Each structure stands twice: as C-alpha cells, then as structure tokens.
Amino acid sequence: MPPVFVINLDKSTDRMAKIAKRLDELGMPFERIPGVYGEALSKNDLNSAYSSQLNKSTYRRPLTKGEIGCYMSHQKAWQAIVTSSLPCALVIEDDILVNPDIKSICYKLAKHTSHFDIVKLFCKKKDPIIVDRVKIDSEYDLCRFDKVPIGNIAQLISLRGAKKLLESRSVFGRSADEDIQHWWEADLNVLGVFPSVVNIIQNAESDIDGQGKRKGKTSILGTMRNIYIRIKYEYKLRTNKKNSTLPVFFD
C-alpha cells in the first residue's frame, strides 16, 4: 500500500477524527497535510500563488480564497511526494466516504507507476464516456475517460506526476481540478478507476464554500468569454489525445 496523505484544515477537527477512524479501520497509516485556509492568506501570499491575469485568460470566473487555499493545500501534498521521492502516494481530502476496496486497488496500481501520472478514484458521473479500459479486478476498471473527471477528493499520484504538477502549476489561475482537466498543458497522463472507490459525504458543508462566496450574475461580455473558453477547451481536448497503453493486471 502506498503512503497516504490526508488534506485537512486545522479547524476541521471533526472531519479529521472521522477520516482517521475510517483509515485506521482499514489498516491504512496516513500523514496529515495541514490545509491552507484561504481566508487567512495575506495579499502577498495570494499573489505569490494565484495570478488574476492568468485567471482572466483561462478560467470562467475569479477563484474564491477558499479555492485558492484548496489548490495550495494540494500543492503541499505534491511537494511531500517529491521531497520524500515516493514512487506514488494516495492524496485524499477529509470529507469522503472510503470503500474498503481502495487498499487493494492502490496496492495494485502502485506496481504500475510508469503507466500514470494521476489516477482519479472518484467520478461524479454515473455513466461517463470511457475511451479505453482494463480490468483491475472483477468489480473495478482502470480507465481513460473522454474527459478527466472533475474533483480532486481522492487521487493516486506518481512521483513523475507530482513533479509535473509542481513545475507547471507553481502559479495558477484555475481551480486545481480544472487544471488537471487541462492535462495536455503539463503533459499529464491522467487515468481513473470506475466505478468510484470513494464517495462524497452527502449534505456535508464545504470548507471551500465557507471561505467567501462566488460572484453572482455574469455579464453578457462575461458569458461570451465563458463560451469562448469552453470552446477552446473542447478544441484542445479533441486535438490532444493520449494513446499510451494501460497496464495489464493479474488477480
């Protein structure tokens, strides 16, 4: 089983207790990554990581301080992988439900780090478009999705993947999961497990949403800009296709 990093804000003690109990039940030792609380960041801290100019040219709206802090929290996890030269590590957020199968799946995937930079363990869509897949076991497949699933709540990240993320995203303008959806910009090989091995806790209050609200109604000019950004994404997605082979698993 690869190392496990849990991203958790200092104030979210209840979440930490719950996820720690679950991981202990599964026999999964972990290291806590103290989350970055966006509301507490100084202007200099924000400007050192987040580019409003890059945001305007690549994303549909400004990021909230919570989203910026979330991104910086994941950067800390990526840096932990690189600092310790880990072949790969499981990075999870603290507000998830963990399926017991995650342990055996990560164990198998950890033997094939040359085949991926990131493996997403959660897919919100119930019927996503999958362009390639291989059996991990009788229940789960390792997949290449037509579009990388949104959300960074649980990911297996290889050392190579962590290095690519840190080198290409030292300053960012999008949310972390949106940047990974633009995988071609950092030459990321992003795969996913389907069905999901973790789930979101229903009706749980978001730590990100609690740190500043998103702006309201979008202007006509803003709407047109958003359409352009979406069309540009779709074009880049269709003209940048990964053809690398998937590993073969044996039970």
Would you write up a description of this structure?
The protein is of the alpha/beta class and 251 residues long. Helices cover 36% and strands 18% of the residues. Strands 2-1-3-8-5-9-7-6 form an eight-stranded mixed beta sheet, with helices on both faces. It has a two-stranded antiparallel ribbon with strand order 4-10. The mean pLDDT is 89.
Q: What's the quick description here?
A:
By secondary structure, the chain is α/β, with parallel strands linked by helices. The chain is 36% helix and 18% strand. It has a single domain, classed as Spore Coat Polysaccharide Biosynthesis Protein SpsA, Chain A (Alpha-Beta Complex).
Question: First CA to last CA: what distance?
Answer: 16 Å
The backbone outline, from C-alpha atoms, is globular
Mind summarizing the main beta sheet? 8 strands, mixed
Q: Treating each run of at least 4 consecutive H or I residues as one helix, how many helices? A: 8
- Largest sheet strand order: 2-1-3-8-5-9-7-6
- Please identify, by name, the CATH architecture: Alpha-Beta Complex
CATH topology: Spore Coat Polysaccharide Biosynthesis Protein SpsA, Chain A
Oligomer: single chain
What is the radius of gyration? 18 Å
